[in-house]
């Protein structure tokens, strides 16, 4: 019979997220993960596997607590309002990020995914879920008359995904409110219903 775990998995994953997020996958050592999580090397490997598997779990934990949670909050709003709220939260998080860590998912896309086909699939899957959120909200807005019919819903969703990625990358090097809001504002204006 397996022994029950003697640690708080969420707390360990939170510590791992902070470690990987601030230093990146390559620069984060197993020793550092052991120090930050408080686990022994054997416990870390038994519970999470190797560094790559632990990074995957940490990234999943980040996505669930950040991106998926944001989508769930925004889904409860009207179509246009949900997209506006999504971007308002992104800009706020970007400006509040004094360490300029950026988005862990975007960091994974740039740091790990180019060299690891498994992570490419993981990152692509999350980006697809964000695009699907935009597509649902735009389609609903086109159906209720609050979003323009001048562009295909699929094209607008892809455009918003591109703007999101651009904002998150810009925020790492130029976390300037005017810059970030200036990137978002025309994209939101593009959604405006035809008069």
TrEMBL record:
<keyword id="KW-0805">Transcription regulation</keyword>
<keyword id="KW-0238">DNA-binding</keyword>
<dbReference type="InterPro" id="IPR036271">
    <property type="entry name" value="Tet_transcr_reg_TetR-rel_C_sf"/>
</dbReference>
<dbReference type="InterPro" id="IPR009057">
    <property type="entry name" value="Homeodomain-like_sf"/>
</dbReference>
<dbReference type="InterPro" id="IPR001647">
    <property type="entry name" value="HTH_TetR"/>
</dbReference>
<dbReference type="Pfam" id="PF16925">
    <property type="entry name" value="TetR_C_13"/>
</dbReference>
<dbReference type="GO" id="GO:0003677">
    <property type="term" value="F:DNA binding"/>
</dbReference>
<feature type="DNA-binding region" description="H-T-H motif">
    <location>
        <begin position="29"/>
        <end position="48"/>
    </location>
</feature>
<feature type="domain" description="HTH tetR-type">
    <location>
        <begin position="6"/>
        <end position="66"/>
    </location>
</feature>
<dbReference type="InterPro" id="IPR011075">
    <property type="entry name" value="TetR_C"/>
</dbReference>
<protein>
    <submittedName>
        <fullName>TetR family transcriptional regulator</fullName>
    </submittedName>
</protein>
<keyword id="KW-0804">Transcription</keyword>
<dbReference type="Pfam" id="PF00440">
    <property type="entry name" value="TetR_N"/>
</dbReference>
């Amino acid at each position: 019979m397996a022994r029950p775990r003697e640690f708080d998995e969420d707390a360990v994953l939170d510590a791992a997220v902070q470690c990987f997020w601030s230093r990146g996958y390559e620069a984060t050592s197993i020793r550092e993960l052991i120090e930050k999580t408080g686990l022994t090397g054997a416990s870390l490997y038994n519970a999470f596997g190797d560094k790559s598997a632990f990074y995957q779990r940490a990234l999943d934990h980040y996505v669930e607590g950040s991106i998926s949670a944001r989508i769930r909050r925004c889904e409860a709003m009207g179509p246009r309002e949900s997209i506006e709220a999504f971007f308002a939260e992104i800009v706020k998080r970007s400006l509040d990020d004094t360490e300029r860590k950026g988005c862990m998912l975007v960091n994974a896309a740039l740091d790990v995914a180019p060299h690891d086909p498994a992570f490419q699939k993981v990152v692509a899957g999350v980006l697809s879920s964000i695009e699907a959120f935009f597509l649902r909200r735009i389609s609903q807005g086109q159906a209720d008359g609050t979003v323009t019919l001048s562009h295909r819903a699929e094209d607008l969703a892809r455009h918003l995904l591109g703007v999101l990625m651009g904002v998150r990358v810009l925020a790492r090097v130029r976390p300037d409110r005017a810059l970030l809001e200036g990137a978002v504002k025309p994209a939101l204006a593009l959604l405006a219903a035809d008069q």
